[in-house]
Amino acid sequence: MSQQAHHADEHRDDEASKIGMWLFIFTELFLFTGLFIVYAIYRHMHPVAFHLSAHELSVPIGTLNTVILLVSSMTVAMATSAIRKGQRLQTLLLLSVTVLLAMAFMVNKYFEWGAKFEHGLYPGSAILHERGFGDTMFFGLYFFMTGLHALHIIAGVTLILVVFAKVYRNKLTSENPVLLDNAGLYWHLVDLIWIFLFPLFYLIT
Amino acid sequence: MSGETHTIVSNKTYILVLLFLLTMTGISVAATQIQLDSLTIFVALFLASVKSFVVLTYFMHLKFDSLFIKLMVASMFIIITLVMILMFIDYDFR
User: What confidence tens digit (pLDDT) does each residue in A27-48 have?
Assistant: First the structure.
């Protein structure tokens, strides 16, 4: 794509690239909407178990991760402005900060999951089996949905690193910033999903 | 070149948007720590929706995008919101 920059420029359609990215984002939203509905139904069926289980999640860690994702969303948004102003170094810096924040999120997630595993709370564990179906469903959905979200973080970081490399090698400049825009859109999607995951699992008890 | 019509959002705007989002997060954490029973779900989801709207408008640049993209995203969210609202009304009144 970028190897033949001159030819690609003439036939480029940034608007279409953006629409394509949005269409992909819709499929992701539908995926998570389905899971939110599953969550709602099981919450309705097992209100007490969900209430007690939600109390076992750490609100401070959840809040910290929310703050981390919101800040990282801002830095990637700032990068889309910086590249247009031709500020290459600032773009690289903002993208690095975004990746570092994403890693901080994953480290928190690692400790959070690790603590749950230590308490014997993981899919298929004997303790959850004893506590009954409601608890099993809560933690099953917790691990599945936050896990799927974490996979999206990894995908987002990969995409941002690709953009970083392109900016670094001057393949992506103020002339063709649409890949950075789309990587940004994907990263905001990850943020958007977390905005709903956080209250549903941590706050509503 | 469609890139020329792109509005460059200032860093100041982004910082203000972030501050707003952080405030909303603080409010939703505080509000859900008080026991409001079934209202808790409504409050938490309402605040989450406001936050998503701001993320979509500013961070995802929809405010400055073409009408086509705006309408496309809006209709998608109307479908998703309708499904969600119907689910949670069902949860509250069943």
Answer: 999 999 999 989 988 988 899 9
Record: contact A196-B91, CB cut-off 8 A: no
Into how many domains does chain B fold? 1
Distance, in Å, from the CA atom of B62 to the CA atom of B81, rounded to the nearest integer, reads: 18
Q: According to the model, what pLDDT value does residue B47 have?
A: 94
Measured CA to CA, the distance from residue A168 to residue A89 in angstroms comes to: 9
Among B16, B52, B55, B68, most A C-beta atoms within 10 A, so best to mutate, is B55
ipTM: 0.89
Question: CATH assignment of A2-203?
Answer: 1.20.120.80
Alpha-carbon distances of B22 from A35, A141, B27, B34, B41, rounded to whole Å:
26, 26, 9, 19, 19
DSSP symbol at B6: P
CB A143 within 8 A of CB A122: yes
Give the pLDDT score at B76: 94
- Domain membership of residue B49 as a residue range: 11-92
User: Is B48 domain-assigned?
Assistant: yes
- Distance CA(A118)–CA(A131), nearest Å, equals 16
Give A104-137 pLDDT, tens digit per residue: 999 999 999 999 999 999 988 899 989 999 999 9
Stated as kind and residue range, the H or E segment containing A143 is: helix A133-168
Of the candidates B9, B44, B59, the beta carbon closest to that of A203 is on: B44
Q: Which of B16, B18, B24, B37 is the best mutation test for A, with the most CBs of A within 10 A?
A: B18
Task: Provide the whole-model pTM.
Answer: 0.90
